[in-house]
Design goal:
Helix content: over 70%
Number of helices: 3
Shape: elongated
Largest sheet: none
Structural class: mainly alpha
Distance between the termini: 17 Å
Order of helices and strands: HHH
Length: about 60
């Protein structure tokens, strides 16, 4: 169940790392940013599956 907390760290991390105003010239570029959002999406989807199985499986 600790994996359910992972998106709470990953999503803000990707968002902050891609903010040009906050990060300046160290901002994450386009392709790594797309991959980071894809990974965050996979994590959220897998956590949704885990939650669904925990709630609705006998």
């Amino acid at each position: 169940m600790l994996s359910l907390q992972l998106p709470l760290a990953v999503i803000p991390l990707v968002r902050f790392a891609s903010d040009a105003r906050l990060m300046g010239r160290w901002r994450v570029a386009r392709m790594p940013l797309a991959r980071a959002w894809a990974c965050a999406g996979v994590i959220v989807a897998l956590n949704g599956t885990i939650l669904w199985q925990a709630l609705f499986s006998g």
